[in-house]
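I had to read the description of the data format several times before I understood it. Each protein is reduced to its one-letter sequence and a matching series of backbone shape codes. The format is easy to grasp once an entry is in front of the reader. For illustration, here is how one protein appears when written out as sequence plus structure tokens:
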Amino acid sequence: MPVRKDEEGHLNHPEFSDAIKKAKTSQEHCLVTNGLRGNFDKTFSIFFAKNVLGWEDVQHVEQNSTVSYNDLGSDQTNAPSVAEAKRLAEES
């Protein structure tokens, strides 16, 4: 739910802000508690958490790679950017 503010950045209805925060906290607690107990369907729980509570799936991916100039074709080794990269690599 977007927060509505006036031109000066003040909340239009600050009296509802705490009530909304408490309701969201209560929803999250209910979802987690009942989801872990198996009282809610897991698909429902996932969609509810993402769409209502703003949860996200996060993946951490680590990638390591090595590029060798020998892997480049002869037509690419004459390109200015490759030549410049080679020169910089040799200088360091």
The chain has one domain: 14-56+66-91. Residues 21 and 27 are 10 Å apart (CA to CA). The radius of gyration is 27 Å. The mean pLDDT is 81.
